[in-house]
Amino acid sequence: MARYDTYGQADDRVVEDLDQGFLGFNNKLRPDLLKAGTLSESNNGRMDLNGEWQPRKGMEIFSTPFSPSVFKLPFRLHDTLPDVATTGDGVKTDYSRSGEVLTINFSGAHGITTGDIVNINVTAGGTVDPDGNHSCTASSTTQIQITISGLDAEPTGPMNVTGPKIDSSTSSSIHASCEFSDPNNAATSYIAAVGTQSTILVKTSDSGATTVTLTYPAGETVPEGSNVVQAFNKLFIFRKGKIALQWDGDISTTTFSLVSNGAYTQPTPISITDLDFASGIATATVSSTSALLVGDVLTVTTAGTSGYAVGDTVRVREVTNSTTFTFATDKADATNKTATVEKAISIGLGFSHMPAPEFGVPHQRRLVVPYQFDVTGSSGSATITDRNILDEAIFSDILDHNTYDRVYGQFRFNAGESDFIVGFHSFSDDQLVVFNRNSIHTVKNSLSLGSSVSQVITSDIGCLARNSIQQIGNKLMFLSDNGVYALDFIDLYNLRGQDVPLSESIQGTISRINKNHADKAVSAYFNNRYYIAVPLDNSSTNNALLIYNFLNQQWESIDSISDNDWEYTHLLVGGSGDKRGVYVVNRTGAVHKYEERSDDSDRFITILGESSKTSIVSASAVTRMFTVGSIDRKKWNNFELHLQSSENNVSNANLEAITENNDGIIDLGSVSQLNGQELAIDEDVSLRGRFGNKRAYGLQFKLTTTKGRPRLRALKVAGAITFRSLQKAE
Description:
Layout: E1 14-19, E2 24-25, E3 38-39, E4 41-43, E5 45-47, E6 53-55, E7 58-63, E8 95-98, E9 101-105, E10 117-123, E11 132-140, E12 143-147, E13 156-162, E14 174-181, E15 189-195, E16 198-203, E17 211-215, E18 227-231, E19 234-239, E20 242-247, E21 257-258, E22 270-278, E23 281-285, E24 297-302, E25 313-319, E26 324-328, E27 334-343, E28 351-352, E29 361-363, E30 366-370, E31 373-378, E32 381-386, E33 392-397, E34 400-405, E35 410-412, E36 421-427, E37 431-436, E38 440-444, E39 453-458, E40 470-472, E41 475-480, E42 483-490, E43 494-496, H1 507-510, E44 522-526, E45 529-534, E46 544-549, E47 554-559, E48 570-574, E49 581-585, E50 591-597, E51 601-604, E52 613-616, E53 620-622, E54 634-644, E55 652-660, E56 664-670, H2 671-675, E57 684-696, E58 698-707, E59 711-721
């Protein structure tokens, strides 16, 4: 390529412009206003080491979908079935129960074959509701049998038998997910994927993706919009307006149960029949420890021979077994003492059980939940009443997920204003951050609820999506109406809101978020990156993943999967060792590990019952607009591109130049054309080419990968200012 040592008076001087590395992208400003090293677009790219831009690693299936009690295709829909034959009284239909088996007789041939699914509807007669879809056995042409687990009484009344009904209770969708760490094994980590009729634990600490199925109590399902969290070594599934489900965390037991519900029962006195003091530890023997939890404060109501005074308090140190617990004591060593103690008794409005919340957050050994519903009635037959109050929260007792103080533990935020709670976050220095839709608050000193105080952080911004909230170092990240914001630690751990969103530089993307479905946004933090999945344009599901790189302090990429059926339903960080990473759970229940493959392919499952799909990672980078520091028209001459292939793959890419005024696209060919062949594994090249003396004000360079994961290291362009009219440019 020509080089000149000097220029004559009439020569057009060639001027060069270059980027020697890349740190982030910005689509708010015009491309010609961007600084060197800033891209105008980055799709499925990473800017990690050495300031290089490179396509991300591919996604891999970690665990295949599961379908909790859903229909397997093909199944038959019976449009018409004969009536169930009557017994002669004209009311009771001809069916009978033997154990868990229902035998149903029809007035004519039913046309049902063994294995078909039918729906029955009848007045229930026991604790297990027989209504719903069931697989059946055709015992004769006019008789079928159905086995219903736990059926403990014969139903009563007329029975209606039809083909299967498809509704929300038979949906195969995954409604919530979280990481679960086995409290009895520090090396064991699971992803809990919550379905309509069961929860699956996917073990991430081994390569086999071992699964454990957790079932729900008879007649209980989990609807859309539910949430799950690990707290107190348990898993809780929150179902808005329904009693929450709990699992004790013991892998040997695989059934959820309902949390205690109905009207709250005040504790009864606990008689200690044998109290031994030894080396500052008191061991108490009682009839049952079922009502005790570690951390419970017990008040002495009868001193007995213990040496304590009535009104003294002790705190449960350990629940040793079903009849023994311990607490710290200052009494001298002694044996065979007696006393009577009692758990705290409520005042005023009294205690309540968990109030059927939509979600919950562990905070300072308590569980914090929205207080929208009242739960009354009797245990097992609770009455749930909507209070129609959306801006109240309530705190549980310490280490007790199901005792809530409606005097000291209840807080209301923005009373009298049109606002409602979106989410909570347990922050440092005993601060619970409460995210409302249009404001943000804190509750301080929750260790002692009687002296807790709440205050407003800001009434200017609120949170759109509960699952967008992440704490990253000294920041709390979340999605608001105006973009992604960050609350900062300032002034000795006081929280302050920011005037400008962290996402200001990608406002072009933020403005594309579908606000009607933005509440579905989910997020995760891993490897110094904040990942937030959002619905862009007209999508009703999360079809894009925005990534902020904290090391570069810039937005790094907009990720997507090349499939219209794909969605980022749930994001979470799980696993240990080399299994730790970002996992994506989609609606099918399939668990995918993000950025797991070393090649340029994504492998995933989007449709239940179908095989996996594979697509190429569609990665591209568009540079800033090069203008060589002049608003004059240039004659663009040549470019030089530094590329290096990935360490594991042969690489190739298409190259284009995008010009402005005159507008156009210059096809620069492919890397293989300029190089004579594709880039070999880890090959480092400097490619040179020409623009063909295209005249334009500015020029952008676009690289679109077609094979492998090539690293874009540097780019230089050269052009000459050729138009110097003092009147106008055409």
